[in-house]
Write the structure tokens for this entry.
Amino acid sequence: MHPLVRVSNIRLQCILGEAQTQPKVGSRLDGYLPLRSLGSVKYEPLFHVVLHEPQIPPNAGNVGRTCVAVGAKLWMVRPLGFDVSDHQLRRAGLDYWKHLEWEIVENWQALIERLPERRFWYFTKRARRVYTAAEFRRGDVLVFGSETQGLPAAMIQAHSDSTLRIPNRPQVRSLNLSAAAAVVIYEAVRQVGAEF
């Protein structure tokens, strides 16, 4: 198989930077990724962490690193504000990407179809309930919005019973995406009693 495979609706089980042909730093591959395999699963995810239309590569890289640390799967919903071949994404994830279970889906509906019968939690500063009030379970889906827009208002309204917020002082609009994800992920890990 050629080391670069077109990214579409295929399941991505890949390692950034382990293709036989490496892209030049800063080059854009226009939807192409180096793949290690398309069928192997590295681990059964403790949680599913979703970045809905993320825009900043280091945030996605850092969330991926946190997912490796706890055994969660990272999902990214297009459109993305960067190429997954982006140098900053790779740098933030360091050498952890080879251990990460992750997948990119074309849109929200594709994600819903890939995660049927799962319990979803939506994180927004507009929620009334604090994230520590939720009772997380293994296999839950933790959904975070883009850095500049958050989650779409229609999504929040449709799932208002499942929205949660991280409290902070009014001087701060919101936490950095990767910091917010880490706060929530580790609270979920604490609640389910996962040990590593």
Remarks:
- The chain is about 25% helix and 15% strand.
- Residues 12 and 83 are 14 Å apart (CA to CA).
- Confidence is low (pLDDT under 50) at residues 1-38.
- The longest strand covers residues 48-52.
